[in-house]
C-alpha cells in the first residue's frame, strides 16, 4: 500500500502530494495525520489518499513512520474545502489544512471520546442478593437492570455514585469500563423550546427554510429589521434540521459579544450544542472540537473558523450579521467564511442562511438576482415600532455657540431618559480617529479630486494623501469653502465623552466599552452584564456595542459623530456608516418602552446618514449600488492590493515600482487584456510605517469579468518580487486599506 501525503510545511515548493510506503500492519485512511521522514527531519503529514500501486520508483520511497490519531481529523468534505481554498485563495494545501484544524487539535492527539460507564456482570437477582445490605447499591442494580449496554456513571442520579459503583465492582457484580460517547438524543428539544407565537414573517421564514432541507442545496438571505426576531428563526431552523438527523453550524461575528445567543442555544439544545469560543481554555477547546468530531454535539456556534467544524451530515449553516467584516480572515489563507460556507453547503447539499438587518451590497445584489431566496421581516417581533430618529446638525450648534460635544437635543434627551430610570447608549466610532481634516464650521472635508474618497492626513510629513491614486496636497489652513480657521483634524475619544458626560450630569453611573477597557474578553462580558443588570445608567462604547445586543431598558441611543466612518479612505465607508448607524439605532426601544435616537453629524444631508435614520435599507441599497456602478467599485470590479513591507524604504519602494511596471506591461501586451485593467498604482500605504517597517502598496482595480488569468499573473508577479528584506503579500478585496 502507498499513501499520498501533504507535508505540514506551508511553502509553495512543497505544495504537492508526496508518496510514501505504508508499512505492513499499518492502516491508513484519508484525513489521518501521520509522521513521515522529510529530508533529514521527521514531520507531520496528512493522508490525502491511498493506493495499491505507484509510479514512483521503489528505491525513492520511504516509509510512513507512525499514525498520530485514532480517527481521521479531517472529514472528506472538509478535505474538499481545503482544495477549494487552495484554488480560490491561491494558498497551499498545508496552509489550508492548518486553517481547518484549531491549534489545540493540531498539537494534540485525537481519540474517540470515552466516559466511564458501568454494567452488571451478574444477573440482576444474584446481584440484588449480594448487595442486600446497601440501599444505594440496590438502587443502582435497579437502574442497570434495564441497561444491558451499560450506563454512563455521570448519568446515575446519586451523590458519590462512583464510590458505590467501585464497591460493587469489588464484589464482582458490576464492571466499570470506558464507553464511547454516543450522540446525545434529541429528547430535550421538545420540552425546552420556548414558546413565542411566531410572527407572520418568522413563520414564513421558518417554513421556507424548513422546506429546503429535503431538497437540493438552497441559500437564503434573511433580511429582517433590527428586533425582527432573527434569532428565533435560527433556533427553529436548527431544531428542524436536528429532527431530520442532521447537524447545523451557526456563525456569529464575535462570540464574546453574543453571550445571549450562546445561552439561548445552550438552553434549548443542551449538550447537543457546542461552542467554539476563543475565550475557552486550551483543553476546553479541544474537548468541544472532539465532541463535534464524535457526533456528540450536533449544533456548533462559533466565530469565523467554526465554518470548518467537523459536523458530519451537515444540513444547515447560518451566518448571523453576514455583513460583518470579521468573516474575512486576514491571515493566510485569506478566506471569506461566507464563500467557504456556500461551497460547503454546495458540497453537502445543505442549506445556507445569511441573516442581517443591513446585508452587504454583494449579498443583496446576489439575492435580487435570484442566487439567494430573499426572506424579508419588516416588523419588530415584539410589535414595538422602530425607534424615532432625530438628526442633529452639529454645524448649527457651533453657530449657536455650543462648542460641547453634546448637542442641546442630546443633552435634553439624556436628562429625560435618566429621570425615567431608563438607560442610555452613547455610541462613538473611533476608527479613523484624527485621520482626516474637517471644517467644524461648515462640515467641509477634503476629498480627492479623482477618486471620491477622503484624503488622509499624515502627521509625520503634514500632508493629505489619496490612498487610491496617490494624489498629495497640503492641508488647508483655513476652510476653502467658508474661510473658517476651525478646520482641523477631527475626532474625540470615548474616554473624553465619559468625562464630559460626568461633568454635565454629576453622579451619573457609566460603563465604557472600548479597546482600552476590554483588552480581555472577560472584562467585556462583565461590563455588558453590569449594564444589562442596570448597574449603570449610561453605556459609552465603540462599534463593539453596535452589534446584536438586546438591552430591553435602553430607550435612548446617542450617536456622537455619525460622520466618523464616512471619511475613511475606503470605497465601503458609506456602506459601513449606514450599517453601523442602523445597527446602533436598533439598540433603542427593544423592550416595553418606545425608543428614541439622536444622531449628531456634520453632514446631515448625506444619504448614508439620512437613510439610516429612516431605516430604509432598500433606498440606501439602490443609491449605493448605483454609485458603485458609476465609480467602478466592487461588486462591479475586483480590487487587489499587493502590500510590501521592509526596513529599507528604498528597497520596498523599488520593489513596488517594479511590480507596477511588470503588471502594466502584462496588460499592455495584448489589447484583449488591457480591457480588464482599470488601474495599477504603486504608492506608499496609508500607514506608511509600522513597527519600524516601511509599507508600500500596489493598488490594482480590474473589471471582474474573466480576470482569473490576470489574477494568476498578479499573484505570481508579487511572489517573484519577494526578496530578502522585502515581504510581499497579495490581498484580494482587502478588508482594510490601511
Ligand atoms: P434581531 O436579531 O432580529 O435584531 P432578536 O432575535 O434579538 O432580533 O429579537 C428581538 C426581541 O424580540 C428579543 O427580545 C426576542 O426575545 C423577541 N422576540 C423574538 N421573537 C418573538 C415573537 N415571536 N414574539 C415576541 N417576541 C419575540
Ligand atoms: Zn468651512
Ligand atoms: Zn485619488
Instruction: Give the terminus-to-terminus CA distance.
Output: 51 Å
* DSSP helical segment count: 23
Query: Strand order within the widest sheet?
Result: 11-12-10-13-14-9-15
Full CATH superfamily name of the largest domain? P-loop containing nucleotide triphosphate hydrolases
Structure classification: alpha/beta
Strand composition percent: 15-25%
Main pleated-sheet profile? 7 strands, parallel
Integer average pLDDT: 86
Instruction: Please give the CATH class of the largest domain.
Output: Alpha Beta
CATH fold group of the largest domain = Rossmann fold
Runs in which pLDDT lies below 50 for 5 or more consecutive residues are 182-193
Number of strands: 30
> Overall 3D geometry?
globular
Q: How many distinct folded domains? A: 5
Q: What would you note in describing this structure?
A:
The chain is α/β, with parallel strands linked by helices and 738 residues long. It folds into five domains: 106 residues, GIY-YIG endonuclease (3-Layer(aba) Sandwich), CATH 3.40.1440.60; 69 residues; 178 residues, Rossmann fold (3-Layer(aba) Sandwich); 182 residues, Rossmann fold, CATH 3.40.50; 95 residues, Alpha-Beta Plaits. It has 23 helices and 30 strands. A seven-stranded parallel beta sheet has the order 11-12-10-13-14-9-15, with helices on both faces. A six-stranded parallel beta sheet has the order 16-26-25-17-24-23, with helices on both faces. Strands 2-1-4-3-5 form a five-stranded antiparallel beta sheet. Helix 11 links the parallel strand 11 and strand 12.
Amino acid at each position: 500500500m502507498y499513501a499520498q501525503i501533504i507535508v505540514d510545511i506551508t511553502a509553495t515548493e512543497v505544495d504537492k502530494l508526496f508518496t510514501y510506503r505504508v508499512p505492513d500492519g499499518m492502516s491508513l485512511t484519508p484525513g489521518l495525520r501521520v509522521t513521515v521522514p522529510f529530508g533529514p527531519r521527521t514531520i507531520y503529514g496528512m493522508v490525502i489518499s491511498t493506493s495499491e500501486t505507484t509510479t514512483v520508483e521503489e528505491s525513492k520511497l520511504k516509509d510512513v513512520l507512525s499514525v498520530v490519531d485514532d480517527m481521521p481529523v479531517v472529514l472528506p468534505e472538509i478535505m474538499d474545502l481545503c482544495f477549494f481554498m487552495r484554488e480560490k485563495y491561491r494558498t497551499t494545501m498545508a496552509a489550508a489544512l492548518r486553517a481547518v484544524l484549531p491549534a489545540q487539535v493540531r498539537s494534540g492527539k485525537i481519540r474517540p471520546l470515552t466516559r466511564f460507564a458501568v454494567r452488571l456482570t451478574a444477573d440482576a437477582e444474584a446481584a440484588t442478593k449480594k448487595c442486600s445490605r446497601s440501599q444505594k447499591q440496590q438502587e443502582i442494580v435497579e437502574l442497570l437492570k434495564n441497561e444491558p449496554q451499560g450506563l454512563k456513571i455521570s448519568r446515575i442520579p446519586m451523590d458519590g455514585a462512583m464510590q458505590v459503583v467501585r464497591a460493587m465492582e469489588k464484589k464482582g457484580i458490576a464492571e466499570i469500563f470506558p464507553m464511547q460517547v454516543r450522540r446525545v438524543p434529541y429528547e430535550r428539544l421538545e420540552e425546552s423550546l420556548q414558546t413565542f407565537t411566531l410572527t407572520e414573517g418568522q413563520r414564513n421564514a421558518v417554513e421556507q427554510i424548513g422546506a429546503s432541507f429535503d431538497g437540493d442545496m438552497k441559500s437564503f438571505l434573511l433580511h429582517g429589521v433590527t428586533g425582527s426576531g432573527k434569532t428565533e428563526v435560527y433556533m427553529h431552523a436548527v431544531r428542524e434540521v436536528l429532527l431530520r438527523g442532521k447537524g447545523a453550524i451557526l456563525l456569529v461575528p464575535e462570540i464574546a459579544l453574543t453571550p445571549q445567543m450562546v445561552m439561548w442555544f445552550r438552553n434549548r439544545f443542551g449538550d447537543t450544542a457546542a461552542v467554539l469560543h476563543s475565550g475557552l481554555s486550551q483543553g476546553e477547546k479541544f474537548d468541544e472540537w472532539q465532541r463535534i468530531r464524535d457526533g456528540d454535539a450536533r449544533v456548533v456556534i462559533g466565530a469565523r473558523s467554526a465554518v470548518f467544524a467537523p459536523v458530519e451530515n451537515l444540513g444547515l449553516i447560518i451566518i448571523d450579521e453576514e455583513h460583518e467584516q470579521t468573516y474575512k480572515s486576514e491571515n493566510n489563507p485569506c478566506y471569506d467564511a461566507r464563500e467557504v460556507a456556500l461551497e460547503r453547503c454546495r458540497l453537502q447539499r445543505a442549506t445556507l442562511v445569511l441573516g442581517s438587518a443591513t446585508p452587504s451590497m454583494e449579498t443583496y445584489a446576489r439575492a435580487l438576482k435570484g442566487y439567494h431566496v430573499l426572506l424579508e421581516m419588516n416588523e419588530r417581533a415584539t410589535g414595538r415600532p422602530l425607534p424615532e430618529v432625530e438628526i442633529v446638525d452639529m454645524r448649527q450648534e457651533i453657530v449657536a455657540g455650543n462648542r460641547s460635544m453634546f448637542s442641546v437635543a442630546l443633552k435634553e434627551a439624556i436628562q429625560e431618559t435618566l429621570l425615567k430610570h431608563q438607560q442610555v447608549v452613547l455610541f462613538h466610532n473611533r476608527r479613523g480617529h484624527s485621520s482626516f481634516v474637517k471644517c467644524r464650521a461648515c462640515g467641509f472635508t477634503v476629498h480627492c479630486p479623482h477618486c471620491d474618497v477622503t484624503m488622509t492626513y499624515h502627521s509625520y510629513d503634514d500632508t493629505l494623501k489619496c490612498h487610491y491614486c496617490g494624489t498629495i496636497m497640503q492641508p488647508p489652513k483655513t476652510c476653502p469653502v467658508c474661510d473658517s480657521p476651525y478646520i482641523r483634524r477631527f475626532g474625540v475619544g470615548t474616554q473624553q465623552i465619559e468625562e464630559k458626560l460626568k461633568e454635565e450630569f454629576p453622579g451619573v453611573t457609566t460603563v465604557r466599552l472600548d479597546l482600552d477597557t476590554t483588552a480581555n474578553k472577560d472584562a467585556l462580558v462583565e461590563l455588558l452584564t453590569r449594564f444589562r443588570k442596570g448597574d449603570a445608567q449610561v453605556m459609552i462604547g465603540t462599534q463593539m456595542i453596535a452589534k446584536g445586543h438586546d438591552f430591553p431598558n435602553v430607550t435612548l441611543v446617542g450617536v456622537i459623530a455619525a460622520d466618523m466612518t464616512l471619511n475613511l479612505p475606503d470605497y465601503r465607508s458609506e456602506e459601513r456608516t449606514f450599517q453601523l448607524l442602523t445597527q446602533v439605532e436598533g439598540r433603542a426601544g427593544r423592550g416595553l418602552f418606545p425608543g428614541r435616537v439622536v444622531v449628531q453629524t456634520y453632514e446631515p444631508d448625506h444619504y448614508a446618514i439620512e437613510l439610516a435614520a429612516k431605516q430604509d435599507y432598500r433606498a440606501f441599497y439602490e443609491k449605493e449600488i448605483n454609485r458603485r456602478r458609476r465609480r467602478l467599485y466592487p461588486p462591479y470590479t475586483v480590487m487587489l492590493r499587493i502590500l510590501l513591507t521592509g526596513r529599507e524604504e528604498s528597497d520596498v519602494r523599488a520593489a513596488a515600482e517594479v511590480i507596477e511596471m511588470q503588471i502594466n506591461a502584462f496588460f499592455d501586451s495584448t489589447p484583449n487584456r488591457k480591457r480588464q485593467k482599470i488601474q495599477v498604482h504603486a504608492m506608499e500605504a496609508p500607514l506608511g510605517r509600522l513597527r519600524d517597517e516601511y509599507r508600500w502598496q500596489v493598488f490594482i482595480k480590474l473589471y471582474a469579468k474573466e480576470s482569473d488569468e490576470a489574477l494568476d499573473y498578479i499573484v505570481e508577479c508579487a511572489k517573484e518580487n519577494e526578496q530578502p528584506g522585502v515581504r510581499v503579500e497579495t490581498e484580494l478585496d482587502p478588508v482594510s486599506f490601511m
